[in-house]
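Onboarding guide, step 5: your first structure request.
Type a short instruction followed by the sequence, for example:

Predict the 3D structure of this protein.
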Amino acid sequence: MGFLWLGKGWTKAIVQALPGDACRVIMHLPIRMDIKPGTHAYLRFGGINAWETHPVSIAWVDHISKDGILLITEKYSDIKVNRNDTVTDVSFVIQAQIELTRRLFERANQCSPRVWNVKASLEGPYSGHHSLDSYGHVILVAGASGITLQLPYVRHLMAGFYNYTVATRKVVLIWIVRDAEQLEWVRPWMNKILSMPGRRDVLKIKLFITRPKNPREITSLSATVMMYPGRPNIKTLIQSEVQQQAGAMCVTVCGPGGL
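The system replies with structure tokens like these:
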């Protein structure tokens, strides 16, 4: 666990209002911090009841050299930089619901161009980390903003597959959202995952849009990135994967109680 401060307890953050009533929050930490998948942090924001905190899953972590160069942290990177010369950006997606999360979205949404630069503080990360490295077949199920817990596992397992550091040989990500707008919440990070080496060999993504606004929204990108209308039958999907099981299998779920 760590407490990250800049000045009198604050660091810099960017809050971007997104379609589908959510915010993408990027916190610029003044030090480097290695963060495992499956962790969360408590955030507080200046200007919105600064003593109120909110727990949020950590969706993405980037390490950046102090001269501003974004580093690829997996072992296939050719960039070599001393750890002491790097800092960390930590990103979150916060769905606007009630109280703090709704006020945060409304504040960013009122800005032009829907981006609010604010002082913020981070307490954490707190682990709830469970290693999935020993499983040959991993199924990750997410509902709405639950994707933020699963993306770091996808990234970690993909890098481990490429570097031969995990047993995983098959990853299936099932993400259920209300409409296609919510796909924008993690688009920058998903694009990075789709460009990772060996992705087509190990990763399948299944997107379910429960209330599509237009049938044209339902467009599958490839045989490994499929999009479907309506709600999935999770039991049927898992049974299908069991029939093609590759080694020990695990299933993790993050989302509404109905999942």
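Each response can be followed by summary notes, for example: Residues 74-78 have pLDDT under 50 and may be disordered.
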